[in-house]
Amino acid sequence: MTRYLLAGGGTAGHVNPLLAVADRILAREPDAVILVLGTAEGLESRLVPARGFDLLVVARLPFPRRPNSSAVRFPAQFARLVEEIRALIREHHIDVVVGFGGYVSAPAYLAARRERVAIAIHEANARPGMANRLGARLTRFVGTAFRSARLPHARFVGMPLRREIESLDRPGERGEALDFFGLSPSRPTLLVTGGSQGARHINDTVNAAAATIIGAGWQILHVTGERSPLPPTGLAHYLLVPYCDRMDLALAAADLAVARAGAATVSEFSALGVPAVYVPLAIGNGEQRLNARDVVDAGGALIVENAEFTPRWILDHLVPLLEDRARIAGMAARTLPVGVLDGADRMVDLVEDALASTVGLST
């Protein structure tokens, strides 16, 4: 019986692949013990127990970004956190630590190294975060969601996907999807989504240009996000939903998408062959633009800067694309080779390699 400690959290980009890997480990090894290391503030505090896994909670300790009093206190706090995680590893007889980035992963990697426990890492973004850049120097078992990600010992494994996405038969389930949303089978569907939280700029721009898109012969399935709702417009062929708990069916209905370029979004669209126009979030360290780079370079997607995505851009660039169905079909075909559906299996293979080898105990 193997005992796993999966470390990561804070955002859905860390928690969802963690849960996909946890589910796949149990599918392969039903008697495995899986514990998750996280914080009380992150999404993991809700999603991990809801999935039936035990969450070990430690303090949220962000890396200081500027010299201040927090930076002065940080080294001692970080050292105490590493020792706390070492104690948890010993208490629960952990065999392997699997990290997904985020605040808890960096101290977990150091704790595992000092306890001589195997380490495996998954990096979800094309531009790796600080925690995984550290961890990749402590193990040879490093999986990336994007081929363009640069980390020591990186192995492309793809994104561990939710089971309902991994098993989705888009052509076979298209009819069910159209019925579910009340969409017309005689019109192609533009899916618009800014992720679970929504994207106000995308929402407002598409909303302002909705009549133009519909006039090009399309219908719009617009998932606004609960934080950025839009009032009903009364336009035919324009469906506004604040939240969608059947994104698998939304993807089955989609012929083209307009979306942010979060790692999970790009990975799911690419794995399923959904061509897209990506509007990267214009904050952070630019990782969203990099996330879309592989599929854009392959010809399966377009990218437009947030400030340039306006109703005029839709008229000048998106509408001509919507009117060229052959071009969209070609984009879909070029999208599929970029993504992978078996990222969860590939990542669990990597974890098994870490367990089977002493290489994970030293560099």
Characteristics of this structure?
Rossmann fold, elongated, six-stranded parallel β-sheet, alpha/beta, disordered C terminus, seven-stranded parallel β-sheet, 2 domains, 363 residues
Looking at the structure, the CATH topology of the largest domain is Rossmann fold
Shape: elongated
Distance between the termini: 26 Å
What is the overall pLDDT average?
Answer: 92
Low-confidence runs = 359-363
β content, as a range? 15-25%
The ordered H/E elements are: EHEHEHEHEHEEHHEHHEEHEHEHHEHHH
The CATH architecture of the largest domain can be named as: 3-Layer(aba) Sandwich
Radius of gyration: 21 Å
Decide which structural class fits the backbone.
alpha/beta
Instruction: Give the strand order, joined by hyphens, for the main sheet.
Output: 3-2-1-4-5-6-7
Beta strands, count: 13
Largest sheet, in brief, is:
7 strands, parallel
